[in-house]
Design a protein that fits this description.
362 residues; alpha/beta; 7-stranded mixed sheet; 4-stranded antiparallel sheet; 13 helices; globular
Length: 362
């Protein structure tokens, strides 16, 4: 009896080896990275400033924090740059030392992994498929009464692509403030949202000190290898404690320089949003019209799709697509996601059409 292979996330090398495919022949719909790739302006700027590697970065990242401050419209003293959001998640948990954590799921596994080193208990609050994975804020607040001191949520969420509105976030944060619950909000995908301001918690950092927003450049700016993320909180005392535990010069000189350039690259930001918003709507509309799938209103640059045809599994669809040179995500490894689900991101129009045709042919 054959055993189904186990692939984690976008493990393209392992997948290509198993199916005897060449990496360059695969269109990767599983990585959720901006299909425009790294900005040409950024490439040129980096190439012209390689001498930065001969000097240490500014330990306080003053210029970088000033640029992020302008980009996010928050005070520079609210900002902590780091070596990707993974480092900041780890630092936040280390400083907070939570006892009882609730995670909004299904979601990114790194939160659970970092918590496992902390001694905190961890439980999940399940977004419900029958509610289209949209959060019932009142019900979540009711669940938080059970002695939790830390809440983690991703907004827009991975893999559901659903989002919590800023108005609901304000209600949730008010409740958490009253009950001594610190909130971490991962906004990795927020720049892909139709209306960023409608779902971002960044403006709320001025009013709610017991929360931190995390962002990065891996997905929207197509720079996962840069390992650059940043945290935003109005709790400057908490931020100081994180900085004290952070490894000095956590972000290298080229990363700090390129980060500044990215946030100023308005043409690239405009092109990205135009591409993602138009193609995402097209993909959502076409998938919604296919008889054997159900999809959900997307706010990130990817769509979650439930397979409704009896006898067809997420692995079946994954395997059919990969044999056609299209790599999607089989979501069976996501905790709290029961059923047959696939996820795929928005790529360039011609590639999106190929995937839609392949799914429609099934």
């Amino acid at each position: 009896m054959s055993t189904k292979p186990l692939f984690h996330g976008s493990d393209i090398e392992k997948i290509c080896d198993y199916y005897h495919l060449k990496k360059e022949d695969i269109t990767n719909f599983g990585s959720n990275v901006n299909p425009l790739g790294l900005s040409g302006r950024i490439k040129s700027a980096i190439a012209g400033h390689l001498d930065l590697l001969s000097s240490y970065p500014d330990r306080e990242y003053t210029s970088l924090r000033r640029t992020i401050s302008e980009y996010c419209n928050v005070p520079a003293e609210f900002i902590l740059p780091g070596n990707g959001s993974s480092e900041l998640i780890s630092l936040l948990i280390e400083v907070l030392a939570p006892r009882h954590t609730l995670i909004l799921g299904p979601t990114y596994s790194e939160y659970s992994r970092e918590l496992s080193f902390s001694g905190s208990t961890q439980e999940y609050y399940h977004l419900k498929e029958e509610h289209n994975f949209e959060l019932d804020t009142e019900d979540l607040c009711h669940a938080l009464r059970d002695g939790y001191d830390f809440l983690i949520l991703c907004n827009p969420n991975n893999p559901t692509s659903s989002a919590v509105s800023q108005n609901d976030l304000r209600l949730l944060l008010s409740f958490c403030r009253e009950h001594g619950i610190f909130v971490m909000i991962d906004e990795t995908y927020v720049e892909f949202a139709p209306d960023i301001h409608a779902v971002s918690a960044v403006p709320l950092t001025r009013d709610f000190p017991d929360m931190m927003v995390l962002r990065g450049v891996s997905k929207f700016f197509a720079a996962p290898g840069m390992r650059f993320g940043y945290g935003i909180t109005g709790n400057t005392g908490f931020l100081k404690k994180m900085r004290e535990k952070q490894i000095p010069w956590s972000l290298n000189s080229i990363g700090a320089f390129a980060g500044e350039m990215m946030f100023k690259d308005q043409e690239y930001i405009r092109q990205t949003r135009e591409l993602i918003l138009s193609e995402r709507e097209r993909m959502y509309r076409e998938i919604s019209g296919m008889p054997f799938y159900k999809t959900y209103q997307p706010y990130a640059n990817f769509l979650l799709v439930r397979i409704t045809e009896n006898g067809i599994t997420s692995f079946d669809v994954f395997e059919r697509c990969i044999r056609a040179g299209l790599m999607i995500r089989d979501c069976s490894s996501f905790q709290c996601l029961d059923g047959e689900y696939i996820r795929f991101c928005v790529m360039m129009p011609q590639e999106n059409t190929r995937l839609l045709n392949e799914l429609g042919a099934g």
